[in-house]
Amino acid sequence: PGCAPGSSLGKEAELAGLLSGILVCCPQQAVYVGWSLGGQLAIELAIHAPQRVLAVVTVCSNPSFVAADDWPGMGADAFSQFRSGVQCDPVTALQRFDTLQVKGATQPRQLLRQLRRLRQPASAELLAGLGWLQMLDQRDLLATLQQPQLHLLAARDALVPSAVGKFITSRLGGASSGQVKVLQRSCHLAPLDAPVELAQEIYGFLTTTG
Predict the structure, then answer these.
(1) Is the CB of residue 43 less than 8 Å from the CB of residue 171?
(2) DSSP secondary structure of 125-169
(3) pLDDT tens for residues 156-198?
(4) What is the C-alpha separation between 181 and 165, in angstroms, rounded?
(5) What is the value of pTM for the model shown?
(6) Which residues does the annotation mark as catalytic?
(7) β-pair partners for 195
């Protein structure tokens, strides 16, 4: 949010407005690949505009980012502390967050430098995004998706545990068009850390699902 055309919503950022902004920018039909929070947004698009979404691929994304008693994720207290840190001292909070994102990478220092070159200043959209991470719980929605879906997790992810894969599988309801796979040599930043492996998995999924 705040980095893509049509999604700069300012202080009044709302999820419905963001989804509408994404659809305005995209073809009438497309495969949506979403990383981290983007994976949850892709699922929301598939639910609310099914005629526009041909397939969904989530990358290092958790349908319920904040942990529950029966679901792995970031602890509620840790999430609240991070959100408060972003409000009070966004520079320091985001630096710590970047360190977590590169944890487990093959070349963490190089990846961290790359990430910080791409880093956008903290904005109202960032706080809205954290609100969506805290609010969205899509566990029961997975089995209702009409589209083929692939959920790619990273074995070395310090933010979205790869163990969530078996829980996602249990919620797919045995749908033949639903798959879960783990990128064995990647951290949370899979698009930067393991781009070739990521592309191969997506290509294979789209090929087998037609």
Answers:
(1) no
(2) HHHHHHHHHHH---TTTGGG--S-EEEEEETT-SSS-TTHHHHHH
(3) 999 999 999 999 999 998 666 899 999 999 999 999 999 999 9
(4) 7
(5) 0.91
(6) 36, 157, 188
(7) none
